[in-house]
Design a protein that fits this description.
Layout lengths: L14 H19 L5 H31 L2
Helix pairs in contact: 1-2
Length: about 70
C-alpha cells in the first residue's frame, strides 16, 4: 500500500521543492528578525532561520545526490 498514491495521483514534494521551501523559510525568518518585536517573536524567527538553514543543507545535499544518481 505504500506505493498507492490515492485518488489524486499526486506525489509528495521532491528534494528540490523542499530545498526551495527551506530557502524561503530562511529568507522570511531573517526578514522578520530585522523588525522590532517582542523577545519571544525574535526567538521564534531565529529558530525558524536555524531550522531553515539545516533544511537547506540537508535537502540540498539530498537533491545533489539524487541528481548524481539519476545519470
Amino acid at each position: 500500500m505504500h506505493g498507492d498514491r490515492g485518488l489524486t495521483g499526486r506525489r509528495g514534494p521532491g528534494y528540490g521543492e523542499r530545498l526551495l521551501f527551506s530557502i524561503a523559510l530562511v529568507v522570511v525568518s531573517l526578514l522578520w528578525i530585522t523588525r522590532d518585536m517582542a523577545t519571544w517573536a525574535t526567538a521564534t524567527c531565529a529558530v525558524g532561520a536555524a531550522g531553515g538553514a539545516v533544511g537547506v543543507c540537508y535537502f540540498g545535499w539530498r537533491y545533489m545526490r539524487s541528481r548524481e544518481n539519476s545519470r
